[in-house]
Every structure is written in structure tokens, then in C-alpha cells.
Design goal:
Elements: E1 3-7, E2 13-17, E3 20-24, E4 49-51, H1 57-60, H2 63-70, E5 73-76, H3 78-86, E6 94-96, E7 102-104, E8 110-115, H4 141-156, H5 163-172, E9 184-190, E10 193-198, E11 202-203, H6 205-208, E12 215-219, E13 225-226, E14 229-230, H7 235-246, E15 250-254, H8 270-279, E16 284-285, E17 294-297
Length: 300
């Protein structure tokens, strides 16, 4: 048997290990202008577990519908669990984690939960993966929050007719999280090999460097977060740094699609591929399309 993977946009995946169906994030119901991923939450007929990387709407929204329709167990932060309880997901389907847990998903599949970092959405971000960004170091929390408020105000005042659909989508998907609720990295260990999944561009160096997954599903978007501070350089350099720390055989990028136009656009991964070839030539970069049911393990 092989482990197959469907990419469903942003950082959402459907992972199938033999008869076990694991969703990684749940955001598939997007704005009308975004390209369809081939599946909606109402069409999900089977899920055993749903891992949530953090509780922002573009990762969590939809988990409540999948959980209610399939009986899937949702694993995520205490904030994720609070939001799912508000959505009337049964308590027996909710597992709150903080990092450090080992959870048996089946007789041969175990997931390990590690604390991680969210990308620096409060810092100046790149418009392309080879654009270097500097500064924004040492900001206090109130300064970060002020930056976020200014950017939200600028988006809401943008004179673009397409922003009306975005505003309505945000209204519908607003589960009122208290921040991102904490970000996690999940290491999924199977009889065929291991898979690391992170749904945002951030990490703790001391954690990542001790993991050795066969396959890494890594976010390739925004301003990378290294130990709580924004990378001084490019997104391509950030992804290559993670590859150098993890030493996987294969990297599958995510969060790089045009998932909410006009506020997003497709990311050209050529600079990431070039930087990986320079810094981590042993790593294969596999760029997936939506719903490809790609066999990722065992590696050949």
C-alpha cells in the first residue's frame, strides 16, 4: 500500500494511510474568484482525524462541518477546541494539544505535536519569494498589533469592486479566534515513513533541527518567522533553511496558491527551487496541483 496525498489549496491536505483518512486543516470553501480545489467541505464523506495547524479562518473554517458530517476527531490548540465547541462539535470529537503530545491515530500511525511559530504577518512581507525583507526586529506586542490594525484598515478601504466578495467571505468565516491560538508542527509517523506538516512559515530552530521526516509539507508564503523574529532575507532562503534543518528527501510546498484574490496571488516557486538546489541539493521539491492523489510514501 502507498500513502497518498491530495492538496486542497492553502495548507489543506487530505492524507490517506491505508484505510485511515486524515485531513490537515480544513479550508476548502473559498471566495468565488479563487480557483476551485475540486472538493468542498459538504462533499467530504469520510474523515477519521482532522489536524489543525492554527485557528485562523483560512486553516480552521470548515473543520466544524467536516467533523459534524463525518464524526472526525479534531486535534488542535485550546483555541481551536473552543471555537469548535462554539460550532456545536461534540466534545468527544475534540482533542486539545499544546505541544509535546504523542497521539495514536491507528495501530500503525502516530502523530507527534510540536510547538511552532506563525509567519510574521505583522512585519513587512515580500511580494515575491526572492524579495529580501529586513528590519522589524524586536517589536513589542502592542507594536505588532498596531501594524496588523493598520493593514486591516487599508484592506477594508481598498477601492476594488472584488473586495466586496472578500468582505462577505470574511464575515461568513469569522469564528472570532483570539489570535492564531498557537501554531503547531505535526510529525506523522507511519509504517511507510514519516511526514512533517506545518501550515505557516515559522519555526523554532531547536525543534526543527532534531526532526528527520522523509517528506515535509511546508508553507511557502509570507515573511518567515525564525524563533519569534522575522527572517532577514527572502522567503526562498527561509524555505531552504527549513530544508537544511529537517533534511527530508522531499518537500511539498503549500499556502502559495492564489487562494483569495484580489488580496492574494499565485507565488512563483522558481526562486525557492533555485535556492533549494544551492543550499539543500539532496531535497526534491514537488509542486502539486489540486486533488492529484499523489503517492508520497514509500519513497523509491
Amino acid at each position: 500500500m502507498a500513502i497518498t496525498l491530495d492538496w486542497l489549496g492553502v495548507a489543506t491536505f487530505r492524507l490517506m494511510v491505508d484505510d485511515l483518512v486524515i485531513f490537515l486543516d480544513a479550508y476548502m470553501d473559498r471566495v468565488p474568484a479563487a480557483p476551485p480545489v475540486g472538493l468542498t467541505t459538504s462533499q467530504v464523506e469520510r474523515a477519521d482525524y482532522l489536524l489543525v495547524g492554527h485557528s485562523h479562518y483560512d486553516h480552521l473554517w470548515g473543520a466544524e462541518r467536516i467533523a459534524r458530517n463525518t464524526g472526525a476527531v479534531v486535534i488542535g490548540s485550546h483555541e481551536t477546541v473552543r471555537l469548535m465547541e462554539n460550532e456545536e462539535v461534540a466534545v468527544k470529537q475534540l482533542v486539545a494539544v499544546a505541544g509535546g503530545e504523542r497521539i495514536r491515530l491507528s495501530e500503525g500511525v502516530v502523530v507527534r505535536v510540536f510547538p511552532s511559530q506563525h509567519s510574521c504577518i505583522w512585519a513587512q512581507g515580500p511580494t515575491a519569494p526572492d524579495e529580501a525583507c529586513f528590519g522589524d526586529l524586536g517589536l513589542f506586542l502592542d507594536e505588532r498589533q498596531a501594524n496588523l490594525s493598520r493593514r486591516a484598515a487599508a484592506r477594508s478601504s481598498a477601492n476594488n469592486p472584488a473586495m466586496a466578495a472578500v468582505a462577505e467571505h470574511l464575515r461568513q468565516s469569522n469564528q472570532r479566534p483570539r489570535g492564531e491560538g498557537g501554531a503547531f508542527a505535526y510529525l506523522i509517523e507511519t509504517p511507510y515513513g514519516s511526514i512533517l506538516w506545518k501550515d505557516t512559515s515559522g519555526h523554532w530552530t531547536g525543534i526543527l533541527r532534531d526532526l528527520r521526516p522523509d517528506v515535509a509539507l511546508l508553507a511557502a508564503a509570507g515573511r518567515g518567522n525564525i524563533d519569534g523574529e522575522p527572517i532577514q532575507g527572502t522567503l526562498a532562503q527561509f524555505v531552504a533553511r527549513e530544508a537544511d534543518l529537517l533534511r527530508p528527501r522531499r518537500i511539498i510546498p503549500c499556502h502559495h496558491d492564489n487562494w483569495m484574490p484580489p488580496t492574494t496571488r499565485q507565488t512563483d516557486l522558481s526562486p525557492v527551487r533555485e535556492e533549494l538546489a544551492r543550499r539543500a541539493p539532496h531535497v526534491e521539491l514537488l509542486e502539486m496541483g489540486y486533488m492529484e492523489s499523489y503517492p508520497i510514501l514509500p519513497l523509491r
